[in-house]
Amino acid sequence: MACALTTNADHQSALKIQGAFRSHQARLKLKNQAVRQTHEKLEYSSEQTQAKLRDLFVKLINSSDLLSPSVTKLLQQAGLPVEEEELLRSTNPDNISVESSYQGPCIEGPITGNTLIDLIEAFRQGQVLHAKYVCKILHQARVILKSLPNFNRIVLSDVHHVLIIGDLHGQLADLLHIFNEVN
């Protein structure tokens, strides 16, 4: 009789172990499926982003040939390469129209520090910047950067720490974290 009880208890234990193992296997299978689906979605979204960027650049290249006065002034400077001239002409923000359905941030006039703060806040809220305003920022940045020297010497004797930032890979959340860290 004791042998039969032991066998029954062993049988029950074996069933519990098998159940736990099968449950673990099922959870593992679900986890692997979730990882695979997430990977596929990320890969697909990357392809969609690249397609959207390609479409944006095609739009920019096919925009009108009219030039704004600021771009005309830049193009009249001696030594401007033909490729650069074509790029400036094809990305002229004055020739890109904003659809009436556009709900994102608008940039009027020169870009200031307050403009950048407003843009960062809009990006935090998930708004998207229209191609016209992207081109406007890039054109103004180009003019400013061309006027600056390639190297800047800085003195670090009074600084307690230095923050070195590598490539952010387009991650706005990382950039916002850096801004919060350094005020």
Shape: elongated
Largest sheet: number of strands, sense, barrel closure: none
- Return the average pLDDT rounded to an integer: 78
> Helix share of residues?
55-70%
Give the N-terminus to C-terminus distance in angstroms.
78 Å
Estimated share of beta-strand residues:
under 5%
Brief summary:
This protein has 183 residues and is mostly helical. The chain has helices at 2-61, 69-75, 82-90, 113-124, 131-147, 172-182.
How would you sum up this structure, described in words?
The protein has 183 residues and is mainly α. It contains 6 helices and no strands. The protein is elongated. The termini are far apart. Residues 83-151 form the PPP domain. This is protein-serine/threonine phosphatase. GO terms for molecular function: metal ion binding; protein serine/threonine phosphatase activity.
Task: Give short descriptive properties of this protein.
mainly alpha, 6 helices, elongated
